[in-house]
UniProtKB/TrEMBL annotation, chain A:
Signal peptide: none
Domain (ABC transporter): residue spans on this chain: 6-233
CDD domains to which the protein is assigned, alphabetical: ABC_subfamily_A
Source organism, top-level taxon: Bacteria
Entry keywords, A to Z: ATP-binding, Nucleotide-binding
Name recorded for this polypeptide: ABC transporter ATP-binding protein
Entry coiled-coil feature ranges: none
Keyword NAD included in the entry's annotation: no
Pfam families: ABC_tran (PF00005)
Entry keyword annotation includes Mitochondrion: no
PROSITE patterns: ABC_TRANSPORTER_1, ABC_TRANSPORTER_2
From TrEMBL, chain B:
Keywords on record: Cell membrane, Membrane, Transmembrane, Transmembrane helix, Transport
Location in the cell: Cell membrane
Keyword match DNA damage: no
InterPro entries for the chain: ABC-2_transporter_component, ABC2_TM, ABC2_TM_bact-type
Transmembrane regions listed in the UniProt entry: 21-39, 182-205, 226-254, 260-282, 294-311, 351-369
Main location per the UniProt record: membrane
UniProt record similarity statement: Belongs to the ABC-2 integral membrane protein family.
Membrane topology, as annotated: Multi-pass membrane protein
Name of the protein in question: ABC transporter permease
Domain ABC transmembrane type-2: from-to ranges: 134-372
Pfam families attached to this UniProt entry: ABC2_membrane_3
Length: 241, 375
């Protein structure tokens, strides 16, 4: 079996006296979408930042493609989309894409084709030459996703990718993520929209700095004997239904 | 090649930000021209002196002094009233041989001017008196000689005219004033200030908007980001420096003894130091407002130690601070080039220290980005 895309074992992360991550165990296999759900402040973004090597683990191990993070070269194989849109507003959509394609190390000959491809995927082809400052919120999110998709990364790490976009577009984004997954890439996605968690292959519940449950949505529902992931979540948190 | 991609991107953003560009290019020029007006107006101080019971000859001498107007008052009470109402700047009262002077002293330069004018008038007056007595004595002597027969005819003509003074200036002319002295330093300060502010803000904006995180999530090397920024702002600084130097020299008419190119080079070096400094400080700021807070703490004090105020007169420990002030070195080098035509090769120390600042700060910046990505 090929090595897992992400393996986090007994990961500990502290910020000063505060322990944000106590003991995180998580794997993302090639060709699956893993959803990371948890309340605000539970450390979802910290998990992602440690996996990317932006933060250093205080204990345990974070490996990507079988290699210990942080590792700069590996970042070429990862597509990352943060909570904020993180775009250069003074530039056009195309200029943003070209810039990040160069940063990812795409060769000159492949850049144009790659941009055409990702623009089609997020349905932005017609607006590519407009300045980002004139984009709507949804368009910015889509451009942000397009940047993450540049260069066909083997691993996509998406931090709340569907916040603030309309339902039709959210559907479209998920269809796209399914396509990426079916092509053999793996996706780690954080969300606090519970019905989105149902769309993932496996869900990890993050609570109190630990992954308290990690299984397919169906298994989780069965385990907690509830109808929806939202109820699983509430039950896990100890809220009486 | 990522360095160049970052450079072109930053330049593109800058060119599209018309307002910032205007600030960088027009603001320094506006301030320099304004300063020129302010300082050239205050070059000559006009004083009005009220005199009480002062001899007519002294009054005349005072009146002949440039920029001094004399008003005579019958008694001190009237003069004091005038002083109080700001009609005159000083009172000179003669009591027999002695003089008593009262200054309004609201403007120190007027007090100094009055003191000087009075001193000159007094010595000129006594010189005239002496001259008068001497003439009298000479005439008496001549009369005596005539009465004596067989006296030698060597009639020595006494030259009583005052010696003529001619002033020569090594740098500039009679109009060279304080402004000309501080201009090379001010020029550097403006280069420093504007580059510092804008470069710091730029990287800060990149951090707060999240693009820095996104950038660092690609395999870009940390030094490529720092160099990309240095290059783009360096190019902008070249234009800005050339413009500021040209305005100073051509529009404000500052005489440059040395090479103008060298002045530009020195200021460019300073601009790069400012750039690295701005980027470094932006990592310690969480918002644009916090970035502004560095200005009174770290930027304004640079003026005090830049050489505008003579450093020789400061206490030793204060002087020691000036050694870590980049503007001191660039100001010193620029002043030497402008006023004495010193070539770059003789400014090794100044250039060397600026280079050390530049390399040191750049390394710190590359290291500092570790805060946002651990590799």
């Amino acid at each position: 079996m090929a090595s897992a895309s992400i393996t986090l074992t007994h990961l500990v992360k502290k910020f000063g006296p505060q322990t944000v991550l106590k003991d995180i165990n998580l794997t993302v296999q090639p060709g699956e979408i893993v959803g990371l759900i948890g309340p605000s402040g539970s450390g979802k973004s910290t998990v992602i930042k440690t996996a990317l090597g932006m933060e250093l683990a205080d204990g345990g191990q974070a490996t990507v493609f079988g290699q210990q993070m942080p590792q700069r070269q590996l970042l070429a194989r990862i597509g990352y989309m943060a909570q904020t849109d993180a775009l250069y507003e003074a530039l056009s959509g195309k200029e943003n894409l070209v810039f990040f394609a160069k940063m990812k190390g795409l060769t000159k000959t492949t850049i144009t084709a790659a941009i055409t491809h990702v623009a089609t995927v997020v349905d932005l082809t017609a607006d590519l030459n407009k300045r980002v400052s004139g984009y709507s919120g949804g368009m910015k999110r889509r451009l942000s996703l397009a940047i993450a998709l540049l260069g066909k990364p083997e691993l996509l790490i998406l931090d709340e990718p569907t916040v603030g976009i309309d339902p039709a577009l959210r559907r479209q984004v998920w269809r796209e993520l399914d396509k990426v997954r079916d092509a053999g890439s793996s996706i780690l996605i954080t969300t606090h929209v519970m019905d989105e968690a149902e769309l993932t292959d496996r869900v990890a519940l993050l609570l109190g700095g630990e992954v308290i449950a990690f299984a397919t949505p169906a298994q989780l529902k069965q385990q907690y004997q509830v109808a929806t992931i939202e109820d699983v979540f509430l039950k896990a948190e100890g809220v009486t239904l | 090649m990522r360095t160049f991609a970052i450079m072109t991107r930053v330049l593109k953003e800058l060119v599209r930000d018309k307002r910032t560009l205007t600030l960088m290019f027009l603001a320094p020029i506006f301030i320099l021209i304004l300063l020129n007006f302010v300082f050239s107006v205050s070059q000559s101080t006009n004083v009005t002196v009220g005199t009480v019971t002062v001899t007519q000859s002294l009054n005349r001498e005072l009146g002949q002094t440039k920029h001094v107007t004399v008003k005579t008052y019958a008694n001190k009470t009237a003069a004091k009233k005038a002083l109080k109402n700001d009609h005159i700047d000083a009172i000179i009262q003669q009591k027999k041989q002695n003089y008593s002077l009262t200054y309004a002293n609201t403007d120190a330069s007027k007090t100094t001017a009055t003191k000087l004018a009075f001193k000159n008038a007094l010595s000129a007056n006594s010189l005239a008196q002496m001259k008068g007595r001497l003439t009298l004595a000479t005439t008496a002597l001549a009369k005596l000689r005539q009465q004596l027969p067989n006296a030698p005819a060597t009639q020595q003509q006494t030259n009583l005219a005052a010696p003529k003074l001619t002033n020569h200036y090594v740098y500039g002319d009679a109009n060279t004033g304080f402004f000309d002295k501080i201009l090379p330093i001010l020029m550097g300060f403006f280069v420093f200030f504007f580059v510092f502010l804008i470069s710091g803000m730029a990287l800060l904006g990149e951090r707060t908007s999240g693009t820095l995180d996104r950038l660092l999530a690609t395999p870009v090397k940390r030094y490529e980001i720092v160099f990309g920024y240095m290059l783009s702002y360096g190019i902008l600084a070249i234009f800005q420096t050339i413009l500021i130097v040209m305005v100073t020299i051509l529009l404000l008419g500052v005489e440059v003894v040395g090479s103008i190119v060298n002045v530009v080079l020195i200021n460019l070096l300073l601009a790069l130091v400012a750039l690295a400094f701005g980027i470094l400080l932006s990592t310690f700021a969480n918002s644009e407002f916090q970035m502004m807070q560095f200005i009174p703490i770290l930027v304004i004090p640079q003026i005090f130690f830049s050489g505008i105020i003579p450093l020789d007169s400061m206490a030793n420990w204060v002087k020691a601070i000036s050694y870590v002030i980049p503007i001191k070195y660039s100001g010193d080098a620029a002043t030497q080039i402008i006023t004495r035509g010193v070539p770059l090769s003789s400014l090794g120390l100044d250039i060397g220290v600026l280079l050390i600042f530049l390399v040191g700060l750049t390394c710190l910046n590359i290291l500092g980005l570790r805060r946002y990505r651990k590799v």
